[in-house]
Amino acid sequence: MSNQFTNPKTADAKDAMIQIEGVNKFYGSYHALVDINAEVRRGQVVVVCGPSGSGKSTLIRTINRLEEISAGFIKVNGTDVHAQGVDINQFRSHVGFVFQQFNLFPHMSVLDNVAGAPMWVSKISCAEAKEDALRLLVKVGLGHKADAYPAQLSGGQQQRVAIARALAMKPPVMLFDEPTSALDPEMVGEVLAVMKSLASEGMTMVCVTHEMKFAREVSDEIWFMDHGMLLERAEPDVFFAQPQHPRAQSFISDILQH
Amino acid sequence: MLDIIHDYWLLLLIGSYPNGPLGGVAATLLLSIIGIGCAFPLSVLLALAQLSPIATIRHPAIVIRYLVRSVPLVMLIFGVYFMIPALTGRSVTGFTTMAVTLVVFQAVYLAEIVRAGIEALPKGQTEASAALGMGYWLRIRKIVLPQALYNMLPSMVGQFVTTIKDTSLGYVIGVQELTYAANQVNNSVLTQPFQVFFVLSLVYFIVCFSLTQAARHLETRVTQQRAPTLVHLTQNSVAPAPMASP
Predict the structure, then answer these.
(1) Using an 8 Å Cβ cutoff, are A32 and A55 in contact?
(2) pLDDT, mean of residues B174-185
(3) Interface pTM (ipTM) of the complex?
(4) Pick from A126, A131, A128, A153: which is nearest to A142 by CA?
(5) Chain B contact set for A151 (CB, 8 A)
(6) How deeply is A34 buried, as exposed, middle or buried, from its count of CB atoms within 10 A (0-12, 13-18, 19+)?
């Protein structure tokens, strides 16, 4: 929580978990990301918000190279993600990613969903991986569902399993791409609660989300995007009270009306 | 009809073996097992090749697909039968010719099914496994194939049954399988072609039907294992319907 008292501008460069420098991305002639410069410090929780089609998801997906970039570079924990010859599987195994659509593996039990990657990618013994997986499932409140299959769970439960699955690789940083957007309203809270507890444990997090209450309470910094540009970076109190950019102002006033 | 079975069961079962090559049902089954057993793994590789992001792998695989699918099986059998001796200078038995042709032909058709199964999977499955650091082969082995093959099981079993039936085309190059044996029987009985070929059909039916049933049992078992509650629910919701009808 000390992060809130640190000015991001004076933060030591060594402290950066994610460094985004001059990133541009084109889909054909469409300019999806425009000159993005930003960094996320260790232990910082960043919420990326903005209207749909603003490039939020594209940006977060470039951080673990689910999307390629056209120019610039992204460094995560010292690794130049988009460099040629980078061991992308090795790199991705150290970055947790949570999808909007959960994307659990339907042919595997909940326990195997969580224990799979540590066994196959990190070559951890089966017994140890399952013990770890069960511990994580208990942590997200689903210890009793270990033997169930994804299709037997509610959306909120599936997303909590997906978070446990990402945590099983013991990543130092977690990326969330609209983790609650595909959920029924009554299930949003349980997923946000898990994310909150992760944040309080000091996990470095980047979350694309429309949950402004979560952004206000949990995040250390808000990134506001529109038309592929990162228009504003501010601490949540400042961002919600006095947004600087006109687009951010209209975005906030739109949200507050609902 | 029973007397035909009574008199010729051994010929229909194993052909003129051990005095001649193995024939009859045994040869048909052997051809089917080789055909399915070799074509299946080959079809998976072929499907993966067709979906490969690397053009030098993808293009030849697609060419093979179009070539084989545009030629009738009988032509392919003749082609292999006459071409291999011409190319290698050695004669090849009809059985080997038939086995090789079946494997190639069925692999291409099975590959279509496998490819459809892979393409039907949500993109998120590959993305989620990639995001966990799983490499290409790990994703294929643990995530993609277990789902794609299971989803395509009914279509694949249909293709397996086709393979069994296609072994009868070995008759045109004198492979001593079941149809060949039935024809031998017909030639010696002379007066009862309908009965002889009815028996032949019956044997094909029994073999193919058993395979279909076995596959259905396998499918139910896998389904139950993967989602016990779901199967339970569908069974319950289906069960009352016949009772409601008068």
Answers:
(1) yes
(2) 88
(3) 0.90
(4) A153
(5) 227, 230
(6) middle
